[in-house]
Write a structure and sequence with these properties.
Elements lengths: L4 H12 L4 H17 L15 H4 L4 E2 L10 H4 L10 E5 L2 E2 L13 E5 H7 L1 H7 L10 H8 L4 E6 L9 E7 L6 E3 L2 E6 L4 E10 L6 E10 L4 E9 L5 E10 L4 E8 L4 E10 L5 E10 L4 E10 L5 E10 L4 E10 L6 E11 L5 E10 L4 E11 L2 H9 L4 H17 L5 H14 L7
Parallel strand pairs: 1-7, 2-6, 5-8, 6-9, 7-10, 8-10, 9-11, 10-12, 11-13, 12-14, 13-15, 14-16, 15-17, 16-18, 17-19, 18-20, 19-21
Antiparallel strand pairs: 2-3, 4-5
Helix pairs in contact: 1-2, 2-7, 5-6, 8-9, 9-10
Family: Belongs to the iron-sulfur cluster assembly SufBD family.
Protein name: Fe-S cluster assembly protein SufD
InterPro entries: Fe-S_cluster_assembly_SufBD, SUF_FeS_clus_asmbl_SufBD_core, SUF_FeS_clus_asmbl_SufBD_sf, SUF_FeS_clus_asmbl_SufD, SufBD_N
Length: 436
């Protein structure tokens, strides 16, 4: 394991560093696991189409060893949806309390940065941290554990409903060059509570860096949690993001992954439907051009009876970019009456654009209703001709068709402000006015 050796050495140092109890334990687990696992290779089935050498050969400095960057509140304005939502800001991988606004939260809803949570709520944090996304999951989750220390702990008490999303905003600037950050966000939504979280990963400078984020989401009986991930990193950045959820009876977990940035990006969404009558909605939109590589992996485990899963990913790929979709629905023998639907539709906008798509079902129960499918196509020339014949210019006609292709999946997001913002980004993406 020559590539990654330096990462392993850094990880051991990080785990030995001064850290509170549960974080220190997670670091030790992570560094040990990473030394065993290393980085995944294309020989690993789940990474068959994604070569991570751009990350493993990188010369990155851990964010926990670097100073907090200085960025103004005004510089954040383009990324906050013009909304006065609870905001947790991380600059170059470090929590920025002066830019964060958490004073609007009612009692029963706690949002703490990881250091505060480990100091003020060590037992509560320790009950959840590292239990859904264990350090042994894969090399990247191990690395995240080894450098644990930044992130948030969100705890929503039973029957509480949060009116607005909690926004976790990660910003990189010039000082973030060659930094690697490993945020860990732990979200607990207790019985019959309802919450929404937005994770944004953005850049105000075109510099190289590496983000390796992990979310652990606990959705208890009757609870609802929506997690919206927006990845608009620098074109020189590399991004790995993992969301792992465990659901209780009659709960609903919704995720949406919006991916336009980074050189190499990988998104993992894994959920375990571990209570009767629960369901998940896992959707996403990826837009790639230039030499970008974007990989989306999902895994839905149906463990109990009478659960549903809905999954729809769409992609727009231009130039020499490469997209990957691998979705697995796994139905355990006890999970009778499962209702699962999974689709992946990709539009290739150039001759060199590529997609490797592999929707999969593994069913070990006999009374189920599961479907899956994938389509890969090019721009509809008939529709283009029709629009041009009506006086619409070629560029605008293409934009209209791309927008129409993407709009229905964007509209599954349960927040009109975010839908509108992402629709705007989708249109801008192919005019050249929003390239990251």
């Amino acid at each position: 394991m020559t590539t990654g050796l330096r990462f392993a050495e850094q990880a051991v140092e990080a785990s030995a560093a001064n850290a509170p109890g549960s974080i220190k334990a997670l670091r030790a687990e992570g560094s040990a696991a990473f030394q065993t696992l290393g980085f995944p290779t294309t020989r690993n089935e789940d990474w068959h189409y994604t070569n991570v050498s751009a990350i493993s050969s990188g010369q990155y400095l851990p964010a926990i060893d670097s100073p907090v960057g200085a960025i103004s509140a005004d510089a954040l304005a383009p990324f906050t949806f013009g909304a006065d939502w609870p905001l947790v800001v991380f600059v170059n991988g470090r929590f920025a309390p002066d830019l964060s606004t958490l004073n609007t939260l009612p009692a029963g809803i706690r949002v703490l940065d990881m250091a505060t949570a480990s100091a003020e709520e060590p037992e509560l944090l320790g009950k959840y941290l590292g239990t859904i996304a264990p350090a042994t999951r894969d090399g990247f989750t191990a690395l995240n554990a080894a450098f644990a220390g930044e992130g948030t702990f969100i705890h929503v008490a039973k029957e509480m409903v949060i009116e607005h999303p909690i926004h976790l905003l990660h910003v990189m600037d010039e000082q973030g060059a060659n930094i690697m950050s490993h945020p860990r966000h732990v979200m607990v939504v207790e019985r019959h509570a309802k919450a929404s979280v937005v994770e944004s990963y953005v850049s105000v400078a075109d510099v190289p860096y590496f983000t390796n984020a992990v979310v652990e989401a606990f959705v208890e009986d009757g609870a609802t949690l929506q997690v919206i991930r927006i990845q608009r990193e620098s074109r020189q950045a590399n991004h790995v993001g993992t969301v792992e959820a465990r659901q209780g009876r009659d709960s609903h977990f919704l995720t949406f992954t919006f991916q336009t940035g980074a050189n190499l990006s990988r998104s993992n969404v894994y959920t375990v439907l571990d209570g009767e009558g629960c369901g998940c909605t896992i959707n996403g939109l990826y837009m790639l051009d230039g030499e970008q590589h974007g990989d989306h992996q999902t895994r839905v485990e149906h463990v109990k009876e009478n659960c549903f899963s809905r999954e729809a990913y769409k992609g727009l790929i231009d130039d020499s970019a490469h997209g990957v979709f691998n979705g697995k629905v796994y139905v355990h023998p006890e999970a009778q009456k499962t209702d699962g639907k999974q689709t992946n539709h990709t539009l290739l906008l150039s001759e060199k654009a590529q997609i490797d798509t592999k929707p999969q079902l593994e069913i070990f129960a006999d009374d189920v209703k599961c479907t899956h499918g994938a389509t890969v196509g090019r721009m509809d020339e008939t529709a283009l001709f029709y629009l041009k014949s009506r006086g619409v210019g070629k560029t605008l006609a293409k934009q209209l068709l791309m927008y129409a292709f993407a709009a229905d999946v964007l509209e599954t997001i349960d927040n009109p402000v975010i839908v509108e913002a992402l629709e705007t980004l989708t249109v801008e993406r192919f005019t050249g006015s929003a390239h990251h």
